[in-house]
Please model this.
Amino acid sequence: MGILDFLKKPDFHGLLEESRQTPQAVLVDVRTPEEYSLGHVPGALNIPVDQIGQVDLAKDRPLYLYCHSGARSSMAVSSLKRMGYPHVTNLGGILSYHGPLEQQ
Model:
């Protein structure tokens, strides 16, 4: 582990695959409903970052969060950890995602 490791972006695809292999994991898109409707990772649940305090998920379920660039999902991860969610991972931003999107 180097001193500049904090500058590394999360491996979106690697963490997405991890979420798919993790029993009971929940993939969460913390962008706005408008952003979510334009295209999101298949299977993602939309909980906007400004509503993360109202999340009603079991605390023992692993949560994998992403947003547009990674900033909002990082904030949401911090909030959820403060709320007592021990298994929360930031995938980063959907800008790093190269796969099919669902639209609503």
User: Anything to note?
Assistant: The mean pLDDT is 92. The longest helix spans residues 71-82. The radius of gyration is 13 Å. Residues 10 and 47 are 20 Å apart (CA to CA).
